[in-house]
Acyl-CoA dehydrogenase (Novosphingobium umbonatum), 393 residues
Amino acid sequence: MTTERAIAIAARVEDFVRTQIFPYESDPRRDHHGAPTDELVYEMREKARAAGVLPPHILPDGTHLTQRETATVLIASGLSPLGPLACNTMAPDEGNMYLIGHVASDDLKQRFLKPLVEGRARSAFFMTEPATMQGAGSDPSMMITTCRRDGNHWVVNGKKRFITGAQGAQVGIIMAKSEEEDSHGGACMFLVDLPDPAIRIDYVPNTIDTSMPGSHANVTIDNLRIPADQLLGQAGDGFKYAQVRLSPARLSHCMRWLGCCIRAQEIASDYANRRMAFGKLLIDHEGVGFMLAENMIELQQAQLMIDWCAGVLDTGSLGTVESSMAKVAVSEALMRIADRCVQVMGGTGVTDETVVEQIFREVRAFRIYDGPTEVHKWSLAKKIKRRWKEAHG
């Protein structure tokens, strides 16, 4: 169950998104990949600041809402694909703020977290690597980007791929495998100012989704020198910190895209209750009505799954099992919901006359981002095997 505090914040967020952000969905300020420009992002954020919803899930004293409370608020911000950008609840910034807030020193928080929380900077999380025979891809344990000590600096070399928001970001979190013996082959994380000449954006591919500024860049890191005091946490603990970030971040994705699919259902339902075909409203045709009914059921199931996983995270658990289950169940359900909304609206559903078409594309990408469905299922299957072996010797 959420709280009255969260319900009140979410109501303000929903009113702001519906009244001030929906009109921006047709704004032409997009880059050549179709993503919103920084000009558009920061203009919306100024409006969010004036409305007192920037960011809505981090309180004035710097503390966060609980995960269950955050769910209520982030779902409301997700009613538009632009809503999380405006309210500063979007990936990768939301997850990066969470990680820095939990791991960084006070000095690093002041330098790197403060501008992010204020919505005056964007950030990028440099973890994913090209899926070569050796590269990490979806498996961070195969990371080949390295870091080594050199006096009072660390030197980082490697390649990263699909780094969301790298183009135009001011804050970076870089993950690299340590070559130092006392790190026992673990990973390190570093906070860096961007742009940096040692971090080269090689290529920004066009992708199916278009909601994130800077899109998803391929990057080369060439002898990047990072002052030792910009190490995030302890050397060798990078994989542990990755889970601190990724488990809540997966759930936050579920929250935001649930909001989008609630919106798609609203649009499709309105269409079905106005459009006549074969002598009656579409909603009165069983095939159409049943699709919207199935959506209603799965939206509620997704909400319950998010609430359950959020409750686990609120106990202080890393919740890796639970977040994997939520990521699979919610992303797959939202894909079915978005697909049915497109189908109900027919030709209109595949045009940019409504936001339904974009929501369909964004949710399709969500089935891959933060770990494809199959990777999470494989991870869960390994845990099932381990538990069986523990129970049966």
